[in-house]
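Input set for joint prediction.
Command: fold jointly, output tokens.
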Amino acid sequence: MFLSELIPLSKSLAITQKNQKIMETEIIDLEDSYLRVLAKEIYSLHDSPPFDKSAMDGYAVRAEDTFGASSNVVKNLTIIDQIGAGDFSTKELREGEAIKIATGAPIPKGANAVLMEEYTTANGNDLKIHSQVTPSENVAFQGEDLKKGDKVVQSSDLIRPQEMGLIASAGYRKVEVYKKPRVKLIITGNELVEPSPKLEKAQTINSNKYTISAMIKSAGAEVEISQRRDNFDEVKEAILNGANDYDLVITTGGTAISKGDVVVDVVDHIGKVLIHGIAIRPGKPLGFGMVNDTPVFMLSGYPVAAMAQFDALVRQYLFKMQNMDYAPKIEKRIATLKIFSNLGRTDYVRTYSDDKNAKYILNRGSGIIRSMVQANSYIIIDENQEGVAKGDLVDVLFFDNMNWSK
Amino acid sequence: MFLSELIPLSKSLAITQKNQKIMETEIIDLEDSYLRVLAKEIYSLHDSPPFDKSAMDGYAVRAEDTFGASSNVVKNLTIIDQIGAGDFSTKELREGEAIKIATGAPIPKGANAVLMEEYTTANGNDLKIHSQVTPSENVAFQGEDLKKGDKVVQSSDLIRPQEMGLIASAGYRKVEVYKKPRVKLIITGNELVEPSPKLEKAQTINSNKYTISAMIKSAGAEVEISQRRDNFDEVKEAILNGANDYDLVITTGGTAISKGDVVVDVVDHIGKVLIHGIAIRPGKPLGFGMVNDTPVFMLSGYPVAAMAQFDALVRQYLFKMQNMDYAPKIEKRIATLKIFSNLGRTDYVRTYSDDKNAKYILNRGSGIIRSMVQANSYIIIDENQEGVAKGDLVDVLFFDNMNWSK
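tokens >
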């Protein structure tokens, strides 16, 4: 049942992708849709602007009537009405006439331009103008942003502020989006306790609870945490409940490669283990399986190993659950040290990169969280590469670029 | 009172920075601290790991006793105890002895290495070993991640998943962070209505409510929205309440440059207008002032102008309120068209940039939200630059890089 050799990352990803779940969709209020993923394309219900409107505070005029006016040549018009924002005029403008108009108000019939207020002097109904305008000047035309029936957004678009504005302009107060994945995070380990100034002998602080739950959020998902002892029945109950009530289960701890450890044992017993042991470093002891059609990622108990496993496999799985491709930008930097790596294994080397160089951070082991705090990026040495020499251009993935909302 | 000429962006920023407010701090649960800003440096309360522990499931041994063992040369040890995770052994290991040990358990006295289980065969208390280990092998040493008293994080650090893990390891369940700014967003405009398939004459859909509130969230702040008619008393009451109950007030609409428009009038009446009219494009009609010691940003009613104003001034103000410097990465791209710009004015040109080029997006006006949806970046032409020629290297700011949590 347990795979006896480490599976390369590329093959592991093929396995998780083959078992990819996509969330159902839901209809939510547009104002709650920031950073959600659209499930349906949207077509505009009307023109935007919905009418020709003034782009300035001033006077709606016939441009022809202003020709020749300047600071030296003052022309005269007669004010016949005024239109505030939200109002409109029923009058039709004729030669020699002007209608006072606010920004955003509909251009009255007969007018074809707006003269800015600062180029005018009004005295009762008499308007002196000191400038000319060309036809269409200071008019925002009906439909210039959107025409009725225009496709506004695509399915799978991430909703940024501007998409929200355009969807609103198209006439919608609700949008159909992919549900956010609800993740059950199960932390295992008898030795784990909450942070405290004083620890009893053999106790270790549960840091994975904090790092992995925040990483789940950073991938656009919601998380609930539970903690279990390294006990088959306790872990079994937690994973079964998680698989039944959540969209995804993530565990930490109990994934040793050398033998069937408790978490992998449980998944093997109640579901199917599809990956056990992956050729990445750090992060070798990873499991992946399905329980009642719910994916279960079994991460290492080692903090840094668990983080690398999350970044190598889980992050893109969570993105894709929301129908979003995970394609973080990979940048090129100069390696400042020789780095060893085995062919067939993908290395995630913690590094601090600036604009030019990727500075190696002493990679002392998969328990050293401090190395992830000092780092801002990974050098990724892929499975077809056998280490890098000092001075080589290497692939660098900045942590910032991996987040859902970056 | 109203400034008669447009203020350059650099000078405007000097004014807002001079009136920069910084939030007070609060103590929150570590598990709620993701993406908050630390207000105090943190020192570790103990060593992490808190004891020398096993990094593998296997047997704690004296490395010397294993020397020479191999798949051909089997050596024998006697198992005298076993230690599960969270347990410890009171026994001291002597020559020829081994203690079964779980990952994470404390190394017993007398042992100096752990031999992985897969290189052993156990039969009752007899252990056959098929491999040798060097001293320290598979041991995670006390304090190798953190030593008691080590500085764990700096004040002003953004709390990422790894900081949460390290702070937990240092012994803390609570952290002191800057409060999130609470922003009152006041939308003005008689013509504005909620999105709807059918609009009455002269009505315009309120898209700023959606874009600007989402932008406020994208800068790490919280927002509450209210809408007011273009009426001095209504706007006055809203701004006064906002200034008293919130950390920052943002308005949209009513900021025309040519005359005192309602919002700017109100702020001039109840507080102090410090900026009215800024040399950016789009976004000229911007106001900034103080009311009862609360900053008020008065944005344009034009959707795209308001967004550019937010990106030029408000975003960094909100970051700094949380004691975070806003320093988004500026990248260089090749301009694919000649772009006009006036000396003294900063242009935010909506563009779609790929790895190489910044493709000009028809910049049809400050009402065209669609242009922001098609764009992924701004070309920024600063106030000392007089336009760019086709083929020039230009400064590009990707929208993704402007967010709080990127």
